[in-house]
Design brief:
Number of helices: 3
Structural class: alpha+beta
Keywords: Membrane, Transmembrane, Transmembrane helix
Transmembrane segments: 20-42
Protein name: Prepilin-type N-terminal cleavage/methylation domain-containing protein
Helix content: 10-25%
InterPro entries: N_methyl_site, PilW
Organism: Halioglobus maricola
Number of domains: 2
Order of helices and strands: HHEEEEEEEEEEEEEEH
Shape: elongated
């Protein structure tokens, strides 16, 4: 075979793809790439959903635990009935941003109170930024960390040095009587034979939980504390993303210690007595901090006797807890 014939045959054997072959290969490549992109997008969307729901759930559990812990201690005043608490004559009555009516900080006659926020976004005269149509919860008690008299004091009528905080309000209580007093004032004798014999000093606590109306709705609370110059109801932002809170209470209308009707307010069951509340159902609706334009939320969430249908692009989680109000139940069963 001549050299020229060999070159022509080599050139023919080395020919490229035809146009049809190239187009088929390109179509197959596009299909493979599209499939990979589809899997990636689906995986990313699923990861985003899982991440958001997990974050919302974790925040919601924390919020519910805080509310539940506070509610379980409502009305606890160191073993003394609220009727036996008196106020020290030197106790300051001026509290910065104090609430009004039964929600007033030093009013221990009412240790549990709730209301639904209206269109003015206000509640109890001390909250001005609450989210409309959400509930507000007032809880009063003492912190279960009593300070006892100094065992090394032979007279038994003094407290250990530095144990009483001058910027805290206390309820000095034994099993019979109790005194609300400023820690900066001189505490009465708690020695044997005295009016407040063997009394312990319990730090007094007031908490008001509500949903604050901000760009990202937030579970907040007002607490009683020292603001640097005076006692005040001060705001703490607790959990972002809580956009609704509904509270229903089990009321014991026949005073046998067992709830027989459920409502959001005692007026709904023909009563005005919050002391008849022995249990609480708490509903929290939380939303993700950021919306997702690939997602449309058309779900309807049932918060007890209230339904919410957002119809937007935020993912949400609804949490519910049944809480026993132990101290009011004990008082009712004891005939107090």
């Amino acid at each position: 075979m001549s050299q020229g014939a060999t070159l022509r045959r080599f050139a023919r054997d080395q020919g490229g793809f035809s146009l049809i072959e190239f187009m088929v290969a390109m179509v197959l490549g596009i299909i493979v790439i599209a499939g990979a992109v589809s899997v990636y997008v689906a995986s990313k969307r699923s990861l985003t959903e899982v991440d958001q729901v997990a974050g919302i759930s974790e925040n919601g559990q924390f919020a519910m635990q805080m509310i539940g812990y506070s509610a379980k201690h409502v009305g606890f005043f160191g073993g003394t009935y609220f009727q036996d608490i008196t106020q020290d004559g030197s106790l300051g009555t001026t509290i910065v941003n104090d609430c009004t009516g039964d929600a007033a900080a030093y009013d221990t006659d009412t240790s549990l109170l709730a209301m639904t926020v209206g269109s003015d976004n206000t509640a109890f005269g001390c909250i001005t930024d609450a989210r409309e149509n959400t509930d507000v919860l007032v809880i009063k008690n003492v912190v279960p960390a009593p300070i006892a008299a100094d065992p090394n004091d032979a007279t038994g009528n003094t407290f250990p040095a530095g144990s009483i905080d001058p910027e805290t309000t206390y309820i000095l209580a034994n099993t019979e009587v109790a005194l609300m007093i400023d820690g900066a004032d001189t505490l009465p004798d708690v020695g044997a034979g005295a009016t407040y014999a063997l009394a312990a000093a319990w730090p007094y606590n007031v908490e008001i939980y509500y949903v604050r109306d901000t760009d990202t709705p937030t579970l907040s609370r007002l607490t009683l504390g020292w603001n640097g110059t005076a006692m005040a109801m001060q705001r703490q932002d607790l959990v972002q993303g809580v956009e609704d809170m509904r509270l229903l209470f089990g009321f014991d209308t026949n005073n046998d210690g067992t709830a027989d009707t459920m409502a959001g307010d005692p007026n709904e069951v023909g009563s005005t007595d919050w002391d008849q509340a022995t249990s609480m159902q708490a509903y929290l609706l939380l939303r993700a901090e950021n919306d997702d334009y690939d997602y449309t939320n058309e779900k309807t969430y049932t918060l007890g006797d209230r339904q919410v249908t957002p119809n937007d692009t935020f993912r949400r989680v609804l949490l519910h807890a049944d809480i026993t109000l132990r101290n009011p139940r004990i008082l009712l069963r004891g005939g107090a």
